[in-house]
């Protein structure tokens, strides 16, 4: 789920405002067929506040105000295309909307907390969604795994106004569509994904959490890929069942995209340090995500490094790692040799450490044929890595790391360990 129109930034208490969202798939394409002709998604929304002034996260529930939502009610003469469906969410359309109002818990005293607030929009209930998956199941076609799961969205900051409610804002019509607001109205465009320790996919955000800003316009590195969501669940299992793989270890998130996995390691585990790597031109997004979650930098050293696969000099700046997490890095066969070289440069081998390193790769089949895949794994073996596909080895000591989502999504989890 993504934001379709910005939100009004300065809101009065007890007034209704409109929020407009839309559904996209993993590669950002608008999802329409999945919900037509009669699919329905009911949304929920809650109010979050940063726990401290220095960092966006951890975000926690706002205990001083209530947020209520309802289906969109305002119908302007011009905006006939806007859905007023009687549903706070989506009805038979990938474009959805709802209205929200914020009310202080202790109304008369105006004791609500000052400062920025964030709306967390999440999926509460779905009906006949996704249609495509149902059709594919009937036709015995493999459906896209995460189609039935809608990643929640956090939007903000918004600011509560102390003034008399709604007397001047847009002539008092606060739930009008965004086009109806004066052009000078301050708007919020920023959205984030929020992940917490207890259950990433349920979005339980009451513990420490990580906020990730995606930059869809930046292309491949700018978003969180399905494989990263699966590896995040693998990481949770690692923390629970194999903490010694991480505790006190140098963990490296290879070609991290948004930095989600590296930041989550710093949040959930006690590594000695975390290195997050990307192509030089793609590290700005990771650095800004580190800043959003700057409370994590007090937990362990967190370094963002430029790394082009195969570049030994850049790899030596990163240093050898005990645990390498590589999500969705196999998608261009011309870089196979360079990628394997980076594994060699970065992974502690039997000579360099008493405990040789481990590499975990999340791989989602897309364009490669069997021959190309085989070429990559053969290269790894030629460079003295033992390879285990964990999804296929239920008796392996690491089989407990494979989350159900891996099977559902078709993401394969491979472990590489140096054989010499
Ligand atoms: C599909 S994205 C995966 C991003 C992230 N790991 C995730 O799963 O969300 C692949 C990443 O590999 C990086 N990449 C592509 N070619 C690379 C190269 N030759 N050297 C280093 N990184 C590269 C891209 O910048 C991109 O962020």
Automatic annotation (TrEMBL):
Any Pfam family matching the protein: Methyltransf_16
Presence of keyword Methyltransferase: yes
Keyword terms, alphabetized: Methyltransferase, Transferase
GO annotation (BP), single: methylation
GO molecular function annotation: methyltransferase activity
InterPro entries xrefs: Methyltransf_16, SAM-dependent_MTases_sf
Record-linked PANTHER family: HEPATOCELLULAR CARCINOMA-ASSOCIATED ANTIGEN (PTHR14614), PROTEIN-LYSINE METHYLTRANSFERASE C42C1.13 (PTHR14614:SF132)
Name of the protein in its database record: Putative methyltransferase-domain-containing protein
Source organism phylogeny: Eukaryota, Fungi, Fungi incertae sedis, Mucoromycota, Mucoromycotina
